[in-house]
């Protein structure tokens, strides 16, 4: 789809939005995906490759209400990218139905994971005139009636979006909005052929502000001196940094292929973990940091290969917005509001986990408490002295990324938790699972551990990595360990 007229400019991309737009243009990070499993009542279970009128009507309602689903991006190949007004959207260009061939439930689950990885690898085209997001409705395709019976009423609604438009938390919110809209649409008499072409002749008066406009970042002289010294200080005057396991150096010549491995934690095991976390004043996210550390310390048992680790925790900036600077209309809108913090796991902490006869369960809780303490200290100072405030000083993002190529990665993994999806009251279509993944971070941590859950149902960990950067065997061991830790704790109160 192309246009002979120049699109109308809305506003310049903010600092974090530009961070993502340049990554997309270079192909080193392309999208975020959040997939919600819908369970339909027996009387209306989905089949075939058709999209129901109620689905299009519900999606149209969400698009109309949220401006970031109606914008394009102009000048993504420059350091001066802008959001654009898209006057017409044909939802049929954004929605597809995919039958997942399967001879078993396991094959269907594997097919969903493969499709999620495939979505991460696709580039968005015609960005200035077509909003960069997609919905794929995944349904089982099988000749085995027993398989179809076990999956009857299930479909997975995959939402993939350019990270400049919104963050992972907004991806979860999109699914909540879509479910609520479906609940309303199904109660109304809908036309057999819904209006799939949406017209927006006039641009919105405004769109959600960039995060630096609604978060009152500040930088102390001491913090800035530290950042400058870290980046530009002569190496012979600086203490050597502790080496951490980081897979292989950044290499933009490698094929960009995202792999996805889900780990489902069943409700009963999740309930036990939540109760234990509350009693120890930690969170599931901080516990997961510790569980990943325990697994990789064991699986990468060589001190030469993996002397230490660094784990990143994503932080939502929503609690740190300034109401006076935010348009009230966009307080709960889909948008980007995210930061991050890195935890250093020392050689001593790693050696303790590797020691013969180590009390692994006690060490896991000890490390979880330390991570929780670090996060609490960080949050107590937000939004002062946060690295997100430094992004404004990067004048040429393309030069920045080129400078990263060939360098060592700073971190070992990243954990991002988008929280709990809540089903709307009285809805006949229910969410039962939420699978969230970041695309392969070609210039960032080699492993993503992405966390999402549905109230009263599973917690799902979406492991993502770049093919050829991390070996499948290591990811499979990590996935098996995380599943086993949860199951063992539910059974015995110990992780091993």
From TrEMBL:
Alphabetical list of InterPro entries matching this protein: Alcohol_O-acetyltransferase, Atf2/Sli1-like, CAT-like_dom_sf
Q: Tell me one GO molecular function of this protein.
A: N-acetyltransferase activity
What Pfam families does the entry give? AATase
User: Coiled coil located at which positions?
Assistant: none
Going by the entry's taxonomy, the superkingdom of the source organism is recorded as Eukaryota
User: What is the name listed in the Swiss-Prot or TrEMBL entry for this protein?
Assistant: Alcohol acetyltransferase
The record lists the organism as: Trichoderma cornu-damae
